[in-house]
Amino acid sequence: MGVRGVSRRAFVRGFAAGAAVLGGHWPGVRAAGRSGQSVTPDVALRLTAAPRRAQLRPGAPTRLWSYRASVLHGDPAAVADLAGNTYLGPVLRLRRGQRLRVDFENRLDEPSIVHWHGLIDPADMDGHPRDAVPPGGHYRYDFTIRNHAGTYWYHPHPDMRTGQQVYFGLAGLLLVSDTEEAALPLPRGEYDVPIVIQDRSFGADNQLRYLAGTGPDAEQEEPEAARESDHAGGGMGMMGGGMMGSGMMGRMGAEMMGRSSGMMGQSGGMQDAMTRMMGFFGDTILVNGQHGWRLDAATHAYRLRLVNASNARIYKLAWSDGRPMTVIATGAGLLAAPQHKPYVMLAPAQRVEVWVDFSADPVGREVRLVNQAFSGSMGMRMGGMPGLGGALGIEGAFPVATVRVARKSAERLALPDHLATVERLRPEGAVNAGRPKVFRITAGGMRWGVNGRSFEMTAHTAEETARLGTTEVWEFDNRTMMAHAMHVHQSPFQVLGRTGGAGEGVADGIVERGAWLDTVLVMPGERVRLIKRFDHYPGLFLYHCHMLEHEDAGLMRNYFVQA
Ligand code: C2O
Ligand code: CU
């Protein structure tokens, strides 16, 4: 991993820019409210979202959007590029207790704002869509890292544009460490490896295929007819050829598309209308922004940070040789103790950290991280499609990444029995212990919603209000035909239980016992009950489905924490 250093000149430049902001000479900058800009941050970064071309495949470079960052002040190791040729943003490495300042600049040709997924931060630092800045605009973030050590990430969060901005490349990892984690004998350095999983579809010209009229080259879109024929043979063909033929239009039509004939006339036509509603599924798996990603490993223990940064795809991940998936952390912190699973379900935005030890493997052995077929997701319900793997043209199962044991290492690390002290949130301590607030996922008129309401920029209901310092029990109730990945901003939550849907081939891979989560998989027909403390900061925050097309189509709401 190359680390970008910070030159004295960069530091001085950053300082000057900061001074200009304080003087109000930097148009577009929103003041950071009560966050107190006079306090010196421990780490100050500049973060830019801009168009970029990258050589992702042989032939023409791919036009993308990408984050770049540099350290203006503090530890130069706070920003590190991912190895290899990638569009993903740099890895930000921060410690609990550090005060972070980020000067964000939007060099896209559309509004954007950065959200720190999973972080506990003030409402005006959280990247709410209402804070999106126009092209050329800036936003200053200034807050203290309060989370447990964990694998977090950052991505855009503008209203109705999150799906396309993430798809065309805007995302990066944000790793938090703390003293408890630092004291554990975990694999570090080259043995601590991120695996960011995304599905994409490329056209013959090496350009990414998404909805018509989106992306860095939106103005050069080819005519609709050309796109349609492309789709039929590509990833989104799943939406057309396969699924719509299997009775989907009949059922989905009644439930969602009934009164929305206007949608059909939109740019991109019928294919795009379906993708906007159901979610995007690509035909190519990228890991860390690269095709055919491979780890040349030593005979050593590894800490793999698996991140699902896909727009809508759920993965069921396992080792090809049947060794267990040894989970040591979710995205929001270490588990109390390692859990051995036959496979791990990873919904969009979820992360798990897996311990894997190759010390008993001979040099030359290859082990693959594979996606297994699973039912109970949309595919099966829609009439016999082979799970979500169908989009890849492989019957349900496909490889995600390959590890090749390439060299010997004499060093041995033992998996610790105990990892972290995980506080249990108890229902007795909730203000509504026996009466959970029920948030039912609903759909109608080509919009998703919660309890019949789609996203409104600043609105929230009485149900969507909590008092600062209290704990509540919430229930996500999914009676739709699709799985959803429900994410609640701010402090992580714990799952109390689930009833209904999960089903065979999914339940054994759900990691939530004794765990902190910020995103939870809710299968069709399932109700998931969780407990959450509304602490640290008052204000307006989001909860939503992290299948980004669902989020962009209204499956997002505010909740308000009253001081
Ligand atoms: Cu990953 Cu509301 O975000
Ligand atoms: Cu959803």
* Average pLDDT level: 85
Rg over alpha carbons? 23 Å
Bound ligands: CU-O-CU linkage, copper (II) ion
Number of separate strands: 31
Q: What's the quaternary structure here?
A: single chain
Instruction: Label the overall shape.
Output: globular
Helix content: 10-25%
* Distinct helical segment count: 9
SS class: mainly beta
Span between N and C termini?
43 Å
Biggest β-sheet strands, sense, barrel: 7 strands, mixed
Strand order of the largest sheet: 12-11-10-14-19-16-17
Low-confidence stretches: 1-36, 220-266, 379-395
Assess the beta-strand content as a share of residues. Answer: 35-45%
How would you explain this protein's 3D organization?
By secondary structure, this protein is mainly β. It has helices at 8-22, 162-167, 179-182, 224-233, 237-257, 261-264, 269-278, 378-381, 548-552; strands at residues 43-54, 62-73, 79-80, 91-95, 99-106, 114-117, 138-144, 150-156, 172-177, 192-200, 284-287, 290-291, 294-298, 301-308, 315-319, 325-330, 333-341, 344-346, 351-357, 366-371, 398-407, 437-444, 447-450, 465-467, 471-478, 484-488, 493-500, 519-522, 526-533, 539-545, 556-562. The strands form 6 sheets. A 7-stranded mixed beta sheet has the order 12-11-10-14-19-16-17, with no helix packed on it. The protein has a 5-stranded mixed beta sheet with strand order 3-4-9-8-6. The protein has a 5-stranded mixed beta sheet with strand order 13-21-20-15-18, with no helix packed on it. It binds CU-O-CU linkage (C2O) and copper (II) ion. Residues 484, 545, 547, 550, 555 line the site of copper (II) ion (CU).
